[in-house]
Amino acid sequence: MSGAPRIRIAQPMLGADVDALVLTVLHSGQLAQGPMVARFESACAAMAGARHAVAVSNGTVALEAALQVAGVEPGDEVVTTPFTFAATLNAILRRGAVARFADIGDDFTLDPRHVEAVMTPRTRAVLPVDLYGLMCDMPALVAIAGRRSLAVVEDAAQAHGASVDGRPAGSFGLGCFSFYATKNVTAGEGGCITTNDDDQAATLRVLRNQGMRDRYEYVAIGDNWRMTDVAAAIAIPQLQRLTAINDARRAHAAQLSAMLAHDERILLPRVPEGRTHVWHQYTVLLPEAVDRDMVIAAMRSDGIECGVYYPRLVWDHAAYRDHPQVHRDETPVAARAARRCLSLPVHQGLTHTDVESIAAALLRAVR
Question: Would 360 be classed as within a structural domain?
């Protein structure tokens, strides 16, 4: 089958409410950071159950800014997962810090049992990554960090509305969200940092605005990390219907799991007790003997786009392999996941028939 696939791995769903709010901004003449960003921040704080949300231009900036206010300095070590997008590692390296990697569990997230094993006296922070819409075991990770007086920066870029033990993503330490085009809520580009610390929030607001506390009052060496009112207007209506968005994804995930359970060789995503998954991605592990590229090609011939998130451990790319600030810790579970993972469409724009087609096509492809 040639041309674009009929069923995409991600499909932004905006709507007339987004159109109307964006037009309101365009007609207002206030395009840069303004009242719409303030509304966006209020919605993000409510989503995360946090006192503050500070909007920034993207999720990568959110991570970098959070590490800065957490006190991470050049030469400090930050423990994170090797099974993540490059933005996680880039933010650590841009702070001049050293990245250490702990292995993941069978839920694809950082395994607390392995975190302490890679810590050293130079460790300053833990940077867990909520992956595919599932939060890490944040209570266990926060407890580990607390025993060592370490900062916690939660990469919640894929976890809008997820929770663990009733506490939402972004409510543990500093939470960092992305609103990139493929996320459950999108602004096209955008990000935010959530925190309950008044001083951290005040510092973040200064840093994102060229170090200005008031107009032309420079109190820090800052940057331009501001979000536009246009981007905020795209995201606000989606944040208002986030529960419905995640419920639709959850229903599609349940349907996929029910159909794919017929082939026991395919390892289905696991949701640990106490955690609420919001299904940014629905990711399976293919059988070891199956050629993933062949599966992807077969699915595409059936009109279905799949994704591989992520085909290598994050340090296993040319930019990082020999980097002096990247420590290549042994993480065998993550290495196996990188070889075998495949993400299927699960977004809210799918129909029941679409989900049936996705599951049937994968079962055919792995025979």
Answer: yes
Q: What is the rounded distance in angstroms from the CA atom of residue 132 to the CA atom of residue 240?
A: 21
Write the pLDDT tens digit of every residue in 280-292: 999 999 999 999 9
Where in the sequence is the domain holding 187, given as residue range(s)?
16-102+109-240
How many angstroms separate the CA atoms of 200 and 250, rounded? 34
Q: What is the pLDDT of residue 3?
A: 65
Which residues does residue 75 pair with via DSSP β-bridges, in sequence order? none
Q: Identify whether 154 is part of a domain.
A: yes
Domain presence at residue 270: yes
The segments of the chain whose pLDDT lies below 70 read 1-3
210: number of Cβ within 10 Å = 15
Give the CATH number for residue 283: 3.90.1150.10
223 token code pair: 């940057």
Residue 261 has a CB neighbour count (10 Å cut-off) of 11
Q: Is the Cβ–Cβ distance between 326 and 99 less than 8 Å?
A: yes
What is the pLDDT, as a whole number, of residue 275?
Answer: 98
Q: Which of 175, 198, 197 is nearest to 66 (CA)?
A: 175
pLDDT score for 1: 46
Number of domains into which the chain is organized: 2
220, 240, 260 - which closes a domain: 240
pLDDT, residue 2, reads 53
- Global pTM? 0.96
Bridge partner list, 7: 304
- Look-up: residue for tokens 């702990």? 102
